[in-house]
C-alpha cells in the first residue's frame, strides 16, 4: 500500500533527517507519496534523488500546508524531527500540527528512534490499518 509521508525538520535536525531518509531510502522509494517542508525537502532530494512534493518552509506556512492534508485525512505518517532545545518562532503552527495528528490518529515521529520504529513497521507491511481508515472515511466499508 502506498502511503502519504511527510518530512519536517528544524534547522539543527536537518542533517539527521537527511541521514535518516538516506538510510531508509529503499523503503521511501517504494511508490509512496512523499512531502516535505521547503529546505528539508530540497536537502533530501539533493542527497537521495527521491521525488518529493515540497511545501513552503515551516515558518512560512509549510507546517500548516501539511496540516491541511492531515485534517483531510490524506497524510498517513509524519516524521518531524523537532529541536527540543530551541524555541521556534512558529510554535503555534507546530502545536496545531501535533494536535491535528492526535485528532486524526496520524502516526507522528518527533525523534529518530520513533521514526525508525514506524519505518520498520512500514517495511513489514504493518500500515494496512490506514487503508481501512481511508475506506471508512470514504464510506466504502467492506
Characterization of the model:
With 142 residues, this protein is of the alpha/beta class. It has one domain (43-142): 3-Layer(aba) Sandwich (Rossmann fold), CATH 3.40.50.1380. The chain is built from seven helices and five strands, in the order βααβαβαβαβαα. The protein has a five-stranded parallel sheet, sandwiched between helices. α5 (91-104) links the parallel β4 (77-81) and β5 (108-109). α1 crosses α3 (38-48) and α4 packs parallel to α5.
List the helices and strands and how they pair.
Layout: E1 4-9, H1 14-23, H2 25-28, E2 33-36, H3 38-48, E3 53-54, H4 62-71, E4 77-81, H5 91-104, E5 108-109, H6 112-123, H7 128-137
Parallel strand pairs: 1-2, 1-4, 2-3, 4-5
What about the largest sheet? 5 strands, parallel
Tertiary shape = globular
In the residues, how many domains can be counted?
1
The helix/strand series, from N terminus to C terminus, equals: EHHEHEHEHEHH
* Average pLDDT, all residues: 90
**Which residue ranges are poorly predicted, with pLDDT under 50 across at least 5 consecutive positions?**
none
State the distance separating the first and last CA atoms. Answer: 17 Å
Q: Provide the β-strand percentage band.
A: 5-15%
Counted by DSSP, the helix tally is 7
Number of strands: 5
The CATH H-level superfamily is Methylglyoxal synthase-like domain
- CATH architecture call: 3-Layer(aba) Sandwich
Query: What helical percentage do the residues reach?
Result: 40-55%
Task: Kindly summarize this structure in a few lines.
The chain is α/β, with parallel strands linked by helices and 142 residues long. The chain is built from seven helices and five strands, in the order E-H-H-E-H-E-H-E-H-E-H-H.
